[in-house]
Amino acid sequence: MYKIMMFSGGVYKFNELKELTQDIGGFILQEMVMQMETMLHLAFPAEEEKVIRNKVKEVGGKLIELPLAGAEIMIVVPSLGRHHAVDPMCDVAEFLRRKGAITNMMGLTRGVGKRIAQMKVEEKRIIEECDAAVFIFGNFKECIEDKKRICDDLEVPYIIVGGPPEMDLPHYVGNIGRRTERMKRKHEIASLEKMVEGLRAELDVRRREIEEDPLAASPLFLKELIDMTIPPKPGEEFSTIIHLDGLRVKLEPGEEEQIRNIEIGNRKLSDICEIKKSLYEGYLLKILPEAETGSVF
Amino acid sequence: MEVKVEGGDEFANASYSRICQNIFREVGLHSNVDNVYLFCDPSEHVFVISVKIGRVPSPITVNDMTLRGDNRLKITDEKYAPKLLALLWDKFDDRVKQLSRLEITVDVDAKEMEKLMKMVVYEPREDLNVRILDAVDRILPEGARVRYPLPSSGRVTIIASENPISDEWKKRVEDMVAELEKGGTVRCIR
User: Mutation test of the interface with chain A: which of B6, B17, B18, B19, choosing the one with the most A Cβ atoms within 10 A?
Assistant: First the structure.
């Protein structure tokens, strides 16, 4: 079981931290060096946390928990109009990114209103490509109660956020409704924290399921192999996005075959993954459980 | 600007009151609107907004936004610069030269220059309704696309819903506007 954390500190000896992470069987997921500041997203075996903490202490820096790391989350708003953007849509997205998630934003074609609100089948499929979804609804209790029906059939974990502080709804977090100012006050940050906690709880259920029925290979390991086969293009960010049980890979035409033939132990990638074109972006790799594929080594 | 929101629960009323204040400030109408009354009925999905137009600022003349020095004009408020240039080019054609971002020369005699200084660059009254309607559009929930405007002088009133607006609602809102016009306290129209 890998743990994903963020290192934030100076450039002093940070290469040693990178090497140590790789030595203990970990991965560097993201790396950003801004003059004298560095930011690293590290994935390492959970039992080696102490080793990493000691090294971080030595080089001077902070190790920050990323509760949503390794998950791609879709933020769904009724429309992409200025009623929802930039606040609270971007506030929510930014906060989730700070907690380690990769976020996408989506405005529904016919998501506005109460009775007339609906979600298209294609939109539902796009949302289900991600690990979880956050639905941002408005400030009226009656509307949220009615509109929650559009999320009922979703097969991925989701959270509904809205204005009313308390509502008798499952997966609901209040105080994040329609607004025209940025969420930066203490009580607003507390509401966003509550939303992250809700998402974390939902994702933890899925993580436990995966732990009980382990995947043929870790998505982190596959990302490393894919990045070695098809190096990220210059200036391209997140060419490979990690999901809880797979990956989203952005490929050029013709590169799909290369991906299929990547060797993992005594298998090919296509043997242990379901590969399909994403409706949204790139290709989706869903890693099959080891029980189904057998051991790759 | 006074804002009153009624009809929803306590939280919705407070949040929409804040939304109204912020949006009118954003579109620059905060001081041109006397009061705003918003009625929300989320269960029937009917929203009524009534905006009482207040004092409109006086027209902006060339004198208000430039400093004069012989034939030279120095723009002091760049916000109106495109409108000023369009006006001058229209009137004086190639006798107008823009020397730098904020400097203009106009090849005219002193008498004409006097006249020029009094010319109106921007009349806020012209686009007042458009700006109010823009603000109203931003305030009302996006799903309430069926709109019914109630004409009255000095006031913009709009009923909005996602369903066809019934005659009963129209009548109720007409009564409400009449009450507002009388200047009495607004009563919840539910």
Answer: B19
Give the whole-angstrom CA distance, residue A183 versus residue A259: 42
A28 vs A22: CA distance, rounded Å = 8
Q: How many domains does chain A have?
A: 3
pLDDT tens-digit profile of B110-151?
A: 899 999 999 999 998 888 989 999 999 999 999 999 999 998
pLDDT, one tens digit per residue, over B21-70 is: 999 999 989 888 999 999 999 999 999 999 999 888 889 999 999 999 88
Structure tokens given for A41: 């997203």
Work out the minimum CA distance from A222 to partner chain B, whole angstroms: 43
**Mutating which of B43, B44, B46 best tests the A interface, going by the most A Cβ atoms within 10 A?**
B43
The domain in which residue A242 lies consists of 219-293
Q: Which two tokens stand for residue B131?
A: 């700006």
B19: containing domain: 2-56+126-182
Q: Which residues of A touch B145 (CB under 8 A)?
A: 112-113
Which ipTM was obtained for this model? Answer: 0.85
